[in-house]
Give the backbone structure.
Amino acid sequence: MKITDIKSAVIGSNVVLRVMTDKGIDGYSQIENPAGYVRPLIPHFKNMILGCDPSNVESVLRRMRRFAAFKPWGKVFSSIEMALWDIAGKEAGLPVYKLLGGKVRDRVRVYNGSFIDPNPPHQKADTPEKRGENILHLNELPEGFTIVKTPAFWHTSFYTETDAYNTYGNDFIGYHNGSLLTESALNASIDYIARIKKVVGDKVGLAFDIGPGFMPTDVIRLAKAIEPFNVLWLEDSIAGDYTPFTMAKVFRDITSTTTTPIHTGEQIFLRQNFMELIETRAVDVIGPDPADVGGISELKWIAEYAYLHGILMAPHGTFDGVFGMAALTQVCSTMPSNYIAYEFPGINPAWWFDIVEGIPNNFLKDGHVKVWDAPGIGVTFNINKASGYLNAEDKDFFM
């Protein structure tokens, strides 16, 4: 079997990849959205792997790995990797988890970061109490989320220009470059978490995506102040979204001062860039995203290495779409006991579920996704339905 082509199309807000073979077995994946700008990079990798056997996944990846990097290059590399596993599983007639060593759990816990509640108690959660009530409602839905991550602080518009010294504001695509907080802003941050926790109690596990944008001294003060609330983690306080570096030594200084778990990792490409974070125990929880880190086999390797060092695993996945959700379910079913939960992607628009096949009914219940046994990643396109969502320039995607 040989790779004959890689096609791409925009469906909704995701770029979708189709890796084609001479046996007529196709592998599909989604590049995390928004990702239209990555399409010019696809031929860069395609030309390296045409004629290769896609079922020899690592051999194919070795051809591409040295020519990839952090976003956006890692996005394309990672999505090709997942499509290769889809092909390998389909050819073998097995779900991908069987090729990754086999599952150790039949249900995979997920956490909510971007799932949209169709009817929340408050359409505008403009107080901590309203936010807490919305979080509780996510647990009451049939999906029954038991862990919810909520954005806060530098990850939102929580702070104003007067809340930090020498703040730069939103000077880069909407992301904050913060500075040292005023005492009143720090107190408001502590109060915000305390008030949400008072509403939620221990009914739902709470995590907070708080940056990047913090100075280390403020993270330490915040983390120590909220220790009594037993939050699951504080995410990406000093590095994270779209930062092509890890700052492991600074994270280590923070983690060593508090019992509040510190988390990072969604932007990082490849296991080598996790080594210092893991080997120095710079954080308590890591959250690689399979659509950025190098794919699901890379995610598996990092999870095992983190386990050896006593570090927890909570993979990121908010923009990975329905194919990313299926891939996360496959690989997370194989992870060791340091696994907490993966971030359930926001499958938006909802019509995505109408144009794919293979996902069981009621697959998400009580905060868990049931692992299913369809060959490959476990989901594929209904070509007749999906074709109606192709743009004019992509009409040959399924041909």
Notes: The first helix runs from residue 42 to 49. The longest strand covers residues 3-11. The domain at 3-94+382-393 is CATH 3.30.390.10 (Enolase-like; domain 1). The two ends are 19 Å apart (CA to CA).
